[in-house]
Amino acid sequence: MSWEDWKEREKMYACWLCSFPNIGNRQLHRLSESLGGPEGVYFAGTEQWEAVLSPKQAAYLKEYTAGWRPKEAYYRMRKQGIEIITMKDERYPRRLKNIPDAPFGLFVKGRMPEENAPAVAVIGARECSEYGRYVAQQLGTMLGRCRITVISGMARGIDSISQEAALDAGGSSAGVLGCGVDICYPAQNRELYDRLADMGGLISSYPPGTLARSQNFPPRNRIVSGLADAVVVVEAREKSGTLITVDMALEQGREVYVVPGRVTDRLSDGCNRLIKQGAGVILNPEEFVEELWELREKNGDGGSLGLSGNKIVKEGEPKSVKAWEKTEQNSGKRNKIGRRTEALGPELAAVYEVLDFSPRSAEDIRGKLSGKYRDQQIITFLMKLCMENLAVQVSPGRFSRAGG
User: Fold this and answer.
1) Fewer CB atoms < 10 Å away: N or C end of the chain?
2) DSSP result, 325-365
3) Contact 257, 233 (CB under 8 A)
4) CA-CA distance, 75 to 82, in Å (whole number)?
5) Which CA distances in Å does 12 have to 5, 6, 73?
6) Do residues 115 and 253 make contact, with C-beta atoms less than 8 angstroms apart?
7) Closest by Cα among 193, 195, 189, 188 to 204
8) Which residues, at least 6 apart from 283, have a Cβ–Cβ distance to it below 8 Å?
9) Cis, bond preceding 186 (omega within 30 deg of 0)
10) In Å, what is the CA distance from 345 to each residue of 5, 136, 262, 337, 362?
11) DSSP class of residue 150?
């Protein structure tokens, strides 16, 4: 048997072992180490299993194994474009190897994040504000342009907005799921799911066919933070589930940054609390990226960030934010929003400039324009801006800038 054939057999039995539901990662590691790998575990008996598992677990594993067809199940999974990567595989992410309760195996659709490239986890509120939407998009765009992988959970809101922005900017992203990688959750993110499978990766410690359940997400979150060099929180309420990921990130030794918000904004309570506790603060995406590179260079990881050599930066690609800005200027590219507002005409452009992410009434906007237009004219201008996706009506009579 060739080396490649042996590795394929090990993956086949790893698929069986990682699909067994009633066993933890530590037990999986111990079984594999003590019995010579997944294939050795498969052909061992109940007595050998009981050296690691409880009698009840061993009995359940025996029953489970009797109905499992390793070859059939493995190749059915492979036909779906899914593979399994265990800790013994050279492609297993080094960032994950040393985290507490490191996953024994990962099911992957697409590709794993580039090992030598920097990665940032962007997380936050599902029901985000237009301010949060705007910041997540700007941050994802900058990370994508600078070839920094965006890691997140593909949830609606901040997660998916940052991931979509990174892909739109020509970058890469990985979605870590709380279900099998053959299941799109949430269903409304189907387009992002397909893009990640094609341009990035979908990752899960749960076997194909596993449905999304609430208990799956806290363990999923440790992989989100574990795959990243730093974690960024864009919006989070004081008792948000996002803060569970922050706790895990700190336990793993990851840097945590937050986007500050108004003290009266409940969606920013969690972020502002983290600032008080000493988290890093992001004032703009450019400064954050520069700080991230400086941190990695100081820690001796500069080569992996494209600061020396070109491990992740292809010929002709910008190696820093400043280099990217210079490239953009030289190519004559201009800000997309700027081009759109200029094309609106002076009246609409003036109203747009007055708008903020804090909702305002037509009367407020008219006052800031020194009463130049009547209320009805302001309403007309605002509706036109909404049609251009430059403004949103947050509530009856109140409008804000569109985060997207």
Assistant:
1) N
2) HHHHHHTT---HHHHHHHTT-HHHHHHHHH--SS-EEHHHH
3) yes
4) 9
5) 11, 10, 8
6) no
7) 193
8) none
9) yes
10) 66, 28, 32, 14, 19
11) E
CA-atom Rg of the chain in angstroms: 24
Q: Distance (Å, rounded) from C-alpha 222 to C-alpha 337?
A: 36
- The string over 291-320, giving b where at least 16 C-beta atoms fall within 10 Å of a residue's C-beta and e elsewhere, is ebbebbeeeeebebbbbeeeebbeeebbbb
SS3 of 282, please? coil
CB 107 within 8 A of CB 18: yes
Cα–Cα distances in Å, from 94 out to 84, 90, 97, 117?
16, 9, 5, 12
State the DSSP code for 211: P
**Cβ pair 355, 402 in contact under 8 A:** no
Those residues whose C-beta lies under 8 Å from the C-beta of residue 78, and which sit 6 or more positions away, are none
- Residue 306: per-residue pLDDT: 35
According to DSSP, residue 398 is labeled E
Write out residues in the chain with pLDDT < 50, as ranges: 302-334
Report d(CA 216, CA 237) in Å as an integer: 21
Strand order in the sheet with 398-401: 360-361, 398-401, 391-395
Picking from 82, 26, 93, the residue whose alpha carbon sits closest to that of residue 227 is 93
User: Hunting for tokens 């342009």 — which residue is that?
Assistant: 145
Say what the pLDDT of residue 341 is: 59
Q: How many CB atoms lie within 10 A of CB 130?
A: 20
Q: DSSP letters along 80-122, please?
A: TTEEEEETTSTTS-HHHHTSTT--SEEEEEE-PPPTTS-EEEE
Q: How far apart are CA 375 and CA 296, in angstroms?
A: 53
Query: How far does the chain reach from its first CA to its final CA, in angstroms?
Result: 55
For 341, residues 6+ apart whose C-beta sits below 8 A from its C-beta are: 348, 349, 352, 353, 390
Write the single-letter amino acid at 292. Answer: L
Query: Residue 382's closest CA among 404, 403, 365?
Result: 365
Report d(CA 394, CA 130) in Å as an integer: 9
d(CA 33, CA 176): 27
How many CB atoms within 10 Å of residue 345?
A: 11
Burial of 98 (0-12, 13-18, 19+ CB in 10 A): exposed
